[in-house]
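Incident log, structure service

09:12 report received: a user says their structure output differs between two submissions of the same chain.
09:20 pulled the input from the user's history:
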Amino acid sequence: MTRPLYTTDQTLCYDAAGEIIPCGSTLQDGAFKTGPPWPDPRFRIENEIVLDRLTGLAWTRHAAPAEFPLSWEEAIDYIREINAERAFGSGDWRLPNRRELFSLVSHANINPSLPADHPFTEVFSGYYWTATTCARLPGQAWYVHMGGARLFKGMKHGSYMVWPVRNYEADPILPGAGQSTCYAASGDPIPCGGVTAGRKSKTAFPWPEPRFSDESEVLTDHLTGLMWTRNADITEAPVSWNTALEAVAAMNDRSAFGFDDWRLPNIRELESLTDMGAHSPAIASASRFENIREFYWSSTTSAYDPPYAWTLYTVDGNIGVGFKRKADFHVWPVRKTAFGRGIYADETT
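09:34 re-ran on a clean worker, output below:
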């Protein structure tokens, strides 16, 4: 099994106006693929379910089996009902956590924002619930927009679609979202059940303890195999997207911290830093870093609106977009280490 979990499917490069340009040495996501390719084919159909060979997850082929939008509490009740019926041949379906649902997202396609070879039917190009509660505002839960790939949160009494998931690999491949507390629709903590999956759930690849190791001015993430600068604001101010790319290129020119292969992270790499059990910031082991800011650029252009690039909002962990020409976001460089640990590595069995 190949585990390129933090590679996107974006292959094109764009200027600040959103026009396609040659990738060259731009350090954009489409120019600098950061991991091995996704499995080909990525998906395998088995009757009414689809197996994702990238993540080890099984999804219903019908992307909206409940047919209508449901509240968050109704979505969880629906999962319980289909488990009681052993729908689609299994009784261990769950509402996906936010990292699981985000793993389906394409950053090259829109309406729906799913990989080009996906075999799903009845995909709704709108919002889908996850099982993950917002840590700061527990009356809200996370949802993913399957038309344009945004990852936001909203009140649990809202109505969105439901897409059941279960594991089919014996050993989980996808790491948990970081949340180990479960919540009612009211936001009150409750005992965890089978329809939600926390950081230490048996359905998730475990986070290492400790997750990060210190090397003076940089920290290595032993979950992903990525190295980040300890200083999470290398430009010391918000900058435009082009300036962000230029700042990282300048780091390479001077071999900053002893390396000349720094990058502006793609959006999946940025999202990998999030911890849904934390907030303000929702960053794993936040105390190990310095100068964490609220807003960060990624190197990934929005396929939905190419004058914009994907961004991370660290207070809660929102994934949104920023207008490339405006100096609104900060720069947190990353590089891939060669130590061969973590789930970023190209592992085959």
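09:41 both user submissions now match this output. Likely a transient worker issue. Closing.
09:42 reviewer note: The chain has two domains: 43-190, 208-336. The helical segments are 72-84, 98-102, 241-253, 267-271.
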